[in-house]
Amino acid sequence: MKIVNITKVALLAIASLMLMPAQADYPDKPIGVMVAYGPGGATDFQARIATLASGKEGLIGQPIYILNKPGAGGRKGWNWFASEASQDGYMLGAYNVPHFIAQSIVFDTKYNIDNLEPLGNWGADPAVLIVGKDSPFNTVGELLAHAEANPGAVTISGAGKFVGHHIAFLQFAKASGANLTYIPASGGVDALRMVKAGETVAGFNNLSDSARSAADLKILAVADLTRHEYLPDVPTLMESGVDVDDSSVNFRGLMVPAGTPQDVIDYLASKVPDMFGEKKTVGKMKATNSPARIMTRDEVVSMWSERQAYLTGLLAGLQ
Amino acid sequence: MASTRVENLNRIMNKPFKISTVLITLFSAFLVYASFILGNNEDYLFPRLISGTIAVLSLMLWFEKGEADKSTNFKDLMPGIAIATAFILSLKILGFYLASMIVFFSLVMYYSKPTEPKDFWRVILIKLGVTIVFSLTLYALFTLLLKVRTPEGLF
Amino acid sequence: MEFLNYFDNVFTVYHIALLVGGTFAGIILGALPGLSPTMSVALLIPFTFHMKPESGLILLGAMYTATVAGGAISAILVNVPGAPANIATAMDGHKMAQSGKAKDALHYCFMSSFVGGIFGVLILIFFTPPLAALSLKFMSTELFWVAILGITIIATLDAKSVIKGLMSGLFGLMLATIGEHPTSAMERFVFTDHLEGGVHIVVGLIGLFAMPQVWNLLENFYGRKNEVFSATGDSTLMQSFRLVSGKIKALSIGSIIGSVIGIIPGAGGQIAGIVAYDQSKKVSSNRSNYGKGEPEAIIAAESANNSMVGPSLIPLLTLSIPGSPTAAVLLGGLLIHGIFPGHDIFTKNTEVVWTFIDSLIIAQILMLIIGLFLSRHSKWIMKVPDNYMAVGILLLAVFGTYSIQNDYSDVLIMFVLGTLMYFGSKAGFSPVPVVLGLILGTMTEEKFLLGNMIGNAKGSSFQHFTSGTINLILIVLCLASIAYGIYSSRKSK
User: Fold this and answer.
1) I want to staple B99 with a disulfide (CB 3.0 to 4.6 A). Which of B85, B94, C268, C296 is the partner?
2) Which residues in chain C are contacts of A67 at CB distance < 8 A?
3) What's domain A127-222's architecture?
4) pLDDT in tens, C26-66
5) Three-state SS string across chain B, please?
6) So where are chain B's domains?
7) Are the C-beta atoms of C199 and A72 separated by less than 8 Å?
8) Is pLDDT above 80 for A12?
C-alpha cells in the first residue's frame, strides 16, 4: 500500500511539474518590455521610467529591460509581439491606445484587442488643439468661425494617420461639422514644428509636448473629459461647445500576448500598478512632464473594449 | 531618318554584348510592373514616376557606349556566398553567436592561401583561437556593453 | 561671453573621465558599421538615466561628436562608411588607403573634423537666436526643394556614366518607397512581412557598402598578393597639418555648408558631407583628381560632417525641433533629465546647457587627440589578412544591422541588397547614389505631399511651392546645379 501511495504521490508530483513549467518561481530572470517605437521617443522613455522600480522587493521582483522594435508607425513591433513574442511572461509589450486599436481596425494586422492581455496603465496624454503664438485665433469658436467662412482652408497637423491626434481631428471635424483639412506629419515633433512655424493654421498634439512649448503656442482646448492639472486654465473641447470626448487620449501601459498562463497574468496584473505608483517613479514622471494615469488590468480591459466599439464606428468608411 | 536608324542599329550590334544591360532592362520592367500593376491606387504615384524614368533610362543604356562589364570569378566567390547564405538563414535557429563562430571558422578555413604554414593542426588551432577571440569581442561589445539582445536560437 | 564661465564645470575629474571615455568609445563605435551616431546616442541614453543631467549630456555630446568623426575610419580603411554622413569620405579616403596613405587620410579627416566641429560649436554659441528663427522658415516646401537639390547632384556623383548614376539614384528613391506611405500610412510593395518596415537608411548603407566589400575580398582572395603597405608614403603629423591648413577653401566650404544644413530641420544632416564634397569639387583646381584619392575631398566632407553637429542643436535647444536624426534622439536624452527645450532654456537651465555646450568644445579637442593617436595604429587594420577581414566585416555588418531595430528582417534586407549591389558594381553602378536616393526619397515624397496638401488648402499648390524667398533661392540653386551637371558632362565628353 505504502509503496503504491508513494508512487502515486511521485507521479502526481511529476505530472504537476510538467503541467506547470517553472511557474512556481516566476519570475526568475529579467523581463523584457517591447516598445514599438525607437529609443528616445516619448513612449520609450516613459516605459523606461515606469518600469524603473520592477526589481524592488514586493513588486515584480526582477529587473526590466526595454526592447525597441520600431517601424511602420508601431505596426511592425506590435505584429511581432502578437505573433512571435514568447508567451511565458518574460516578454511584455508597451501599448499605445488608441493607436494600436485604430490600426487593427483599418489595417490587416496580426494584433487586436482579443489577442493581447493588458496588465495596467501608467500614463494618459490627451491631445490638445494648438495654434501658433502669432495666430489671430484665441478660442475654439474663433477658429471654427474662420473655418465656416473658408471651407477647407483651416489646416490641422497631427502625428500621422490613425494615431490619437488623427482621432481627435476626426471627432472634432465631425462634432463641429466644419470643413477642415488634416495634415498628417511624419511624427509628433514635425507636427508641432508645423504649428510653431505657422505652416498649418492649427494642430492637434500631445498635451505634454505642447505644455512644454507654451512660449511658442496658444493652447485652445484639451480633448479630454476634464481639464488637465498641467493646464488648469485651458478648457476642454466640450466646455468650448464641441462635443468631443476622451477617445483620442493617448493611453500608455503594459500588456502580454494572449496565451500567457493565467497565473502569470494575475501575478503581473497585481504588481504592475504598484510598480507604476512607486514614489520615485511618480517623481520622475512628474519631473519629465509625463502625465501619469495609473489604471488596473480590469479598468484597462473595459477601456480597450469601449475604444474598440467607438473607433470601429468612427473609422468606418474612412479607408 | 532611315540612316540614323541604321546607325543606331549598327551601334547596338557593334558594341560588346552586355548581359548586364539585358538584366537591368528586365529588372526595370519588374519595377514598372510592381508599381503600375501591383500597386493600384494613388499612393503609387511617386513610385510610378520613378520606375517609369528608370525604364526609359534602361532603354537608353542600350545605346550608351560604356565600359564592358567586369568579369566575375564565380569559382572563388560562390563558396563564400553559399557559406554566408547558410549563416544568415541559420541565425535564428542556431542563435547569433553559435552561427557566427561556425561561419567565421568555416570561411577562414575554406579560404586559406597555400603559403600558410604546413602544420595542419597548428593552422586549425590558430584559426579556432581567432574565431573564439573575435566571437567573445562581439559578445562583449554588443551584449555586455550595448545591451543588444540577439535571438538565442533553439539551443 | 557667458559660455566662458562654465568651463569649470567641465574640468572636474569625473567629467573629464566621461569625456575621454565617451570620445574614445565614440570613435570606435562610430567606426563599426551599423553603430551610426544616431544609434550610438540612442543606445547610450539609458546609461545616462541615473546620472546628473549635465553629466549625462556631456557623455551624450562627446558620443555625438566622436561617432560622427569615427565613421570616417572604416570609410577610409575598409570602404565601409560608419554612417550615411561618411559616404563622401569613403570615395576618396579609401582610394588613398589603397595607395598606402591610410594614415595621411585619417590625419586629414580628424584635423578637418576638428576645424569644422569647432566652427559649428561657435555658431551654436554666438548665433543661436537668429538661426533658430531662420530654421523655422524651412517648412515642407523649402524642405522639398532641399531634397531636390540633393537629388540634382546624384547624377554627377558617378563620373563614369550619367545614365547609370541617375539609375542608381532613382533605384535608391524607389527603395525608399517600400513600406508605409508617408501620408496615407498604407503599405506599399510589402510582398513579404520582411519589408513591412521598409528599408532603414542605415540598413541600406551597411548592405550597399559592407557586403560588396566582403564579396570582393573573397572573390579575389587567391588572385591578390597579401600586400603590406609600405610606410614610406606616410607623412608626419606636421606635414599633414601643413597640408590641411593650406586648404582654406575646402575647409570653409565644408564648415559653412555643414552649419547651414545642420540648422535645417529633419533628415538633411546626413547629406552635409556629400553636398560639401560636391560643392568643393566644383570650385577646386584639383577637380579631376576627385574620386581618385584627393585630400581636399576628404577635408571638405569631414569638416562639413562635424560642423553640422553644433548647429543641429540650435533648433533642438530653442524650439524642440531637431536639426538631424541624432539631434532627434538627443531630444529624448534632454527630456529624460527634465530639461525642456524652449527659448528660455538658456535662462532656466543656464548651468546645464552652457556646461553641455562647453563640453562640446572639449570633446572636439579630445576627438582630435584620440583620433590622431588611433591613426598611428591604422596600419594594423590594413594588415589583417583578406579572409579574416571578409568574415569580420560580414559579422559586424550582421550584428550592426540587427542592433539598429532588433530586427532579423533587416539582416535579410541588408544581405540581399548588398549582394545585388555587388553584381551591380560589376556593371559600373556605384552604391553612393543609391544611398543618397534612399536618404532623400522619403523626404522628397513626404514634403511634396504635405506641401501639396497645405498649398491646396491655401488655394494654389503651385504658388505655394514657388513663393517665398527661401523657396526661390533653392529653386535657382537646383537649376544652377542641373545646368552645371549638363555642362560638365558635355565637357568631359
Assistant:
1) B94
2) 406
3) 3-Layer(aba) Sandwich (3.40)
4) 999 988 887 888 888 888 888 888 889 899 999 999 999 99
5) CHHHHHHHHHHHHHCCCCHHHHHHHHHHHHHHHHHHHHCCCHHHHHHHHHHHHHHHHHHHHCCCCCCCCCCCCHHHHHHHHHHHHHHHHHHHHHCHHHHHHHHHHHHHHHCCCCCCCCCHHHHHHHHHHHHHHHHHHHHHHHHHHCCCCCCCCCC
6) 2-61, 74-145
7) no
8) no
Output b/e per residue, A219-250; b: 16+ Cβ within 10 A.
Answer: bbbbbbeebbebbeebbbbbebebebebbbbb
**Searching chain B, which residue's CA lies closest to the CA of residue A85?**
B151
Residue of chain A whose Cα is closest to the Cα of B151: A85
Please calculate the CA angle C33-C38-C43 and round it to the nearest 5 degrees.
90
| Dihedral, A214, A216, A220, A222 alpha carbons, nearest 10 | -50
Say how many CB pairs under 8 Å bridge A and B: 4
Confidence of residue C9 (pLDDT cuts 50, 70, 90): confident
Identify the weakest region by mean pLDDT among A105-119, A254-268, C340-354, C358-372.
Answer: C340-354
Would A6-124+250-315 and A127-222 be classified into the same CATH topology? yes
Distance CA(A118)–CA(A300), nearest Å, equals 7
Looking at chain A, which residue has its C-alpha nearest residue C342? A213
Inter-axis angle of helices A279-287 and A42-50, to 10 degrees?
160
Q: Is the pLDDT of residue C270 over 90?
A: no
Cβ-based contacts of C344 with chain A (< 8 Å): 215
- Cα–Cα–Cα angle for B78, C421, C35, rounded to 5 degrees: 105
* Per-chain mean pLDDT for chain C: 88
Average pLDDT over chain A, rounded to an integer: 89
Is there a contact between C338 and A76 if contact means CB atoms under 8 Å apart? no
Q: Do B147 and A65 touch (CB under 8 A)?
A: yes
The total number of structural domains that make up chain C: 1
Give mean pLDDT, residues B19-27. 88
- What would the pLDDT profile of C147-175 be if each residue is shown by its tens digit? 998 888 887 776 678 888 889 999 999 99
pLDDT digits (tens, 9 = 90+) for B112-152: 877 666 777 888 899 999 999 999 999 998 888 888 888 87
Cis upstream peptide for A27 (omega within 30°): yes
